[in-house]
Amino acid sequence: MKKYIHFTSSALALVVQCFALTASQTAVAAPISASWVYKISIVKGAPTPDMASKAIAATGMIFGAVTVADGSDVGTIDAKGFNLRSHVKVATLLSMLDSNLNMGRQSNGIFVNGIAFTQRYSDKRGSNPELLMVTNLKQKQFAFTNGAGPARIEPMKYATVDIAMLPYAFIGRLAPKTMSFVAFTDGKSIYSTSLTPRPEKFEVAGKLIPAVRLSGTASGGTLDLWIREADGYPLHMRVGLNAQYGAVLDQQIEAVPTALFIR
Question: Is the pTM higher than 0.90?
Fold first, then answer.
C-alpha cells in the first residue's frame, strides 16, 4: 500500500493541529552530525555538456567513480521537527572550473505521517543568487524566490521535503515496509516519486548494517535511498542523472552512530 500525503481540507487541518500539539510538547532535540562523500560515475558515451562534466568524464574513464565533493550536515531533529544546515565543498579540480559549485543549504520543518515536511529551505551556490522555498500552510502554497525576487507560487499538493533533508526523511522510526510516496524540491521545482522498499545489508566503514533500500524514479532519473532498518538513519543516496548527463551521483555517509536515533 502506498503512503500518500495529499492535502485535502481534513489533511491540512491535521497538519495545523500537528503544529499546535508539537508546540506544547517538551522534547530533547537529538543532534545530527554527518559527513558525506559525493562520487560520480559516468556512463560510457554519455553526453558531457559543460567543462566540469567533461573533466569528470575524462577522469572517470580512467579511475571509475570520481570523488567530486565532501559534505557535512549539522542540526537537530526531534518530535517537534528538524533544523538542518548542510555544506558541500567540491573538489579542487571542479572549483577551478566553476567556483559556483560549492553549496550552503538550510532546512527547517516538521514531520507529517512520519516523513519530513520542509517549511523553509534555502540554497546558496557560490556567488549565485540564493534560492528560497517557503511553505504557506494558510494559503496552501509553496512560494519560490531567487535573487531577482519572487519567482512563482505553486499550489500545495503534497507534503514536500528538500534535497538536503531528503536522506533523513524517514529518520527516527522503523524503515517503511510498504511503498512510500515522497515529494521533494531542489529550491526551484518539485518532483515526486513512489519508493519501493527492499531489505538489504549495507556496508559503512567496514561494517554490514541491516538496511532498507527505497527505490523509485523522478524527472527522468532514478532515486535510491538506503536507510538503517531499525531507525531510518541515512546510509547512502544514489541519484541517476541519465536523462541529462548519463551519470550516477552517489552520496556516501562516512560513519553511522551505533546508538539508534529515536525522535
Answer: no
